[in-house]
Backbone:
């Protein structure tokens, strides 16, 4: 089978975000980059499907040329090739992103049986792109999957609801968005990384339409101004912890 | 008018749907237009009737042989029919999995942009929204350029309204659905096995991060959770390492929790973890780094090696309970 997985390069900040002076971007000078855990999971799912069913896998990104870094990461764990839709770094809204991805899929010509997305991107979190691509390509789409399997030309997906799971089933070709936890992403091996460097990436530069969801600025949530009261150092603090349990009625 | 997409699960309106209704009611009031709602499926007729109490003037109940359970594309098709027929100023949905899914379908069908996870919406041309990004660690101020504003509201941004004496007119209609619209629907439901206290309902969560060091290390956390009648939580480092099941992951891509007490053991407090637990009522940290970022979100802390501290806390708790 042929599987396409779509990922997005995003800055990784462990602590509070720092904004540029005009508050229109995250200041990334001191930051590394990554993709959403949902998408890391989607990449792992793609690799496993190809291991199980044969065929080949492709990773697609719309982003700055440096997004190659995230595509190589995906290739290091087994994705075969890449499609990089290069941008100048300006933000594309979900509608424009989906249109560019659908165009790229048509232009590529590969008959993808399954196109995988993260449930939502780490930064924009519009929950839009996968569903919109599905409509543009006229395919069924399952979203938010926490369980996924392919058999007999059908995709079965599960997602949690209160007290259990709901199950969906659609024929391939289909589109699916997955959530962190469907499969634990493997770590790339050294040979995997070396192989990844030689895998082909096709580049093109789509034109960005005007934003219909237009970002104006960012603001950070107010500082908590909170500072934990230190109950003590080491095991001696145990009684003080129990006092807190008592005070708040936990025991 | 303003159209709210009121989600129900087999007839039961969710708390989040009532929040979306309240958001819609406020928008309708500000704009001086009536509030309508869409409820999908005959199973939702009781739910539809109850919406009048929350300020809805007219409920459109979509009935169709194929609409027996949740079917996102079909729901969106029904909503699109109303959008075409009634030209609402805005369509308001719930900012959860189902709500955002239906809105994405609606956006695709109507070729309109969608602003998901809004904390504030000011209708106009363009509409100004504030959206939660990075699990609420960043607020985006954005403009929605569209004749109909499609928005979802982030859970708990507004409180559900207090029910009054209002009565809604319920108008049944049969949306025109193609087979493709009904392709995606719930085919089965499975009950969760295992039991135990669910993470979202637990009053106490004892949560562990990289500092716990191993799957075995969680034995101590389980013991403390047992004494406090709590559940286990984990950071993504822990679930990625396979020390704990992913269902226990707390954070931006895990579960969002808000217990009375959250005990964070060996967790640094990355923003993506905080996104899932910062609203806990009381947070106690056990960490060997007095400067860990989580300290500025916590109420109490014990500094030191959790492998020495937890056994002492367990013993002291046992003594207190005896
Ligand atoms: C888009 C995105 C989404 C993400 N979603 C999530 C999510 O949902 N949930 C999540 O948790 N993470 C998420 N992450 C990952 C997140 O950025 C952090 O990598 C992760 O939360 C760190 O986990 P940690 O605190 O266990 O580990 P670390 O950051 O390594 O912290 C370990 C802490 O343990 C302390 N420690 C070490 N040894 C001991 C000891 N013996 N005794 C006491 N303390 C000790 C250290 O001082 C340190 O503070 C996400 C990342 C991205 C990019
Ligand atoms: N710029 C992009 N390039 C490739 N895939 C993307 C891009 N933006 C979003 N996606 C995919 O679409 C999913 C949903 O994104 P969103 O609609 O922004 O929440 C993400 O998890 C990715 O899989």
Residues:
């Amino acid at each position: 089978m042929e599987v396409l997985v779509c990922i997005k390069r995003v800055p990784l900040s462990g602590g509070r975000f720092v904004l540029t002076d005009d508050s229109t971007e995250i200041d990334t000078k001191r930051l590394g980059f990554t993709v959403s855990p949902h998408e890391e999971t989607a990449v792992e799912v793609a690799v496993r499907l190809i291991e199980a069913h044969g065929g080949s896998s492709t990773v697609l990104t719309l982003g700055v040329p440096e997004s190659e870094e995230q595509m190589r990461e995906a290739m290091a764990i087994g994705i075969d090739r890449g499609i990089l839709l290069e941008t100048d770094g300006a933000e594309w809204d979900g509608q424009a992103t989906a249109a560019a991805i659908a165009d790229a899929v048509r232009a590529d010509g590969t008959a993808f049986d399954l196109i995988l997305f993260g449930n939502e991107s780490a930064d924009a979190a519009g929950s839009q792109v996968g569903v919109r691509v599905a409509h543009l390509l006229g395919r069924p789409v399952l979203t938010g999957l926490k369980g996924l399997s392919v058999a007999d030309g059908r995709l079965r997906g599960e997602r949690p609801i209160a007290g259990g799971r709901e199950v969906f089933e659609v024929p391939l070709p289909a589109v699916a968005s997955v959530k962190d936890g469907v499969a634990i992403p493997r770590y790339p091996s050294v040979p995997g990384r070396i192989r990844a460097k030689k895998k082909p990436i096709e580049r093109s530069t789509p034109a960005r339409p005007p934003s219909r969801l237009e970002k104006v600025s960012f603001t950070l949530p107010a500082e908590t101004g909170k500072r934990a009261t230190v109950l003590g150092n080491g095991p001696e603090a145990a009684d003080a912890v129990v006092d807190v349990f008592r005070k708040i009625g936990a025991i | 008018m303003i159209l709210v997409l009121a989600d129900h699960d087999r007839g039961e309106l969710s708390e989040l749907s009532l929040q979306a209704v309240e958001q819609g009611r406020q928008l309708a009031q500000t704009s001086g237009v009536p509030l309508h709602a869409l409820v999908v499926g005959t199973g939702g007729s009781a739910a539809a009737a109850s919406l009048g109490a929350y300020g809805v003037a007219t409920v459109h109940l979509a009935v169709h042989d194929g609409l027996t359970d949740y079917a996102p594309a079909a729901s969106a098709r029904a909503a699109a029919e109303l959008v075409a027929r009634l030209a609402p100023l805005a369509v308001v949905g719930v900012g959860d999995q189902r709500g955002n899914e239906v809105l994405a379908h609606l956006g695709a069908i109507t070729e309109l942009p969608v602003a998901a996870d809004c904390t504030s919406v000011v209708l106009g041309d363009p509409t100004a929204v504030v959206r939660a990004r990075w699990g609420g660690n960043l607020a985006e101020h954005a403009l929605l350029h569209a004749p109909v504003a499609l928005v979802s509201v982030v859970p708990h941004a507004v409180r559900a309204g207090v029910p009054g004496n209002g009565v809604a007119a319920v108008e049944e209609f049969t949306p025109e659905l193609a087979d493709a619209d009904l392709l995606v629907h719930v085919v089965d439901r499975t009950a969760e096995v295992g039991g135990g206290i669910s993470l979202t309902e637990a009053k106490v969560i004892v949560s562990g991060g990289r500092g716990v060091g191993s799957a075995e290390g969680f034995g101590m956390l389980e013991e403390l959770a047992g004494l406090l009648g709590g559940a286990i939580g984990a950071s993504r480092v822990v679930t990625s390492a396979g020390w704990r099941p992913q269902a226990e992951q707390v954070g931006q891509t895990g579960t969002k929790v808000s217990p009375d007490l959250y005990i964070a053991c060996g967790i640094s407090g990355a923003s993506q973890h905080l996104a899932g637990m910062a609203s806990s009522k009381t947070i106690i940290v056990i960490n060997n780094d007095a400067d860990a970022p989580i300290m500025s979100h916590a109420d109490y802390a014990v500094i030191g090696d959790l492998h020495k501290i937890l056994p002492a806390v367990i013993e002291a708790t046992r003594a207190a309970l005896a």
Summary: Residues 2-204 of chain A form a domain with the Rossmann fold fold (CATH 3.40.50.620). Chain A touches chain B through 91 residues (CB under 8 Å). Residues A 6-8, 36, 38-39, 60-63, 94, 97, 117-118, 120-121, 124-130 surround adenosine monophosphate (ligand 2) (CB under 6 Å). Chain A is about 25% helix and 30% strand.
